[in-house]
Design brief:
The protein has 10 helices and 20 strands. The strands form 5 sheets. Strands 3, 7, 8, 11, 12, 19 and 20 form a 7-stranded mixed β-sheet that branches. The chain has a 6-stranded parallel β-sheet with strand order 15-14-13-16-17-18, with helices on both faces. The chain has a 3-stranded antiparallel β-sheet with strand order 2-1-6, with helices on one face.
Length: 345
Amino acid sequence: MKAVVLQPSRQVVIEDIPAPGALAPDQVRIQIRNVGICGSDVHYVNHGRIGPFVVEQPMLLGHEAAGVITEVGSQVRQLQVGDRVCMEPGVPDLSSAASRRGLYNLDPAVTFWATPPVDGCLTEEVIHPAAFTYRLPEQLSLAEGAMVEPLSIGMQAATKARIQPGDLAVVIGAGTIGIMTALAALSGGCSQVIIADLQEEKLALIRQHYPAIRTVNIRQQPLLEVVQQVSAGWGANIVLEASGSPRAFDGIVDLLCPGGCLVLVGMPPEPVAMDIVGLQSKEIRIESVFRYANQFERALALMASGRINVKPLISRVYPFAQSVEAFARAVEGIAGDVKIQIELA
């Protein structure tokens, strides 16, 4: 079968690979239909590595996916052939200490699609554990199903923030994860969410489709000035850093009110300096996010209810035969793009 493969030379190609074999009793076979291109995919294409994860052999790309079940294992009861599904790309050791504590995203033994040396899912079919496969509500498309994975990161961030009804939240970074985080914060009970970025194209898209979110172009107006104005000088209850830019940490403590919460969502490429005394003097609580745990069903419920609409964030959908072109577009980083997907017929 065909697959989109990243070579160690960082070239993206479509290649023939062996089809997966027989199912285990607790697994399902899935015909892949939609796959989103993630920032991590682009990073592997550009750099060949993320921290200790190095592309040393050909690796299938893709981990944001939805598809249709074509076969179920003998012990699977909650799913059946023909179900449209999305899948958690990380599969932990369910007997690990992390999994037993409900922190399965932190299991050191987790195998995560498209994280070297684990292959991704940008191929015609995959075999996956039924426990990490979720039926799509009928009102959601397969393209929307492939957006559940990035939304789950925003959901994890909102959960870690411990939002209280009426909170003011500030999201730094209006990429896919930043927008998902802002939507999750609104759904979680924030009365106001401010999102800040440098790219006017993304902010314009937010204003068009999500008018409940206030946008700030930090090239044109200081973010602190807006936060002070909106909060009558008190500060934001929650700041969610989703850009991964080291510059975002300059003055980040000033945005927060006393007793506020700073949630680290983006991953800076190098260590950053933090104003420890500033954090202490306000008793700021710091939370961090690494993927997600127990969020897919909640994300699906919010999407199915209409509370969160991800369709405006799907910028372009390429047919599978144009996967190389799709990755070239993603690598280009065009300001108006949010999420690029590849569709398999």
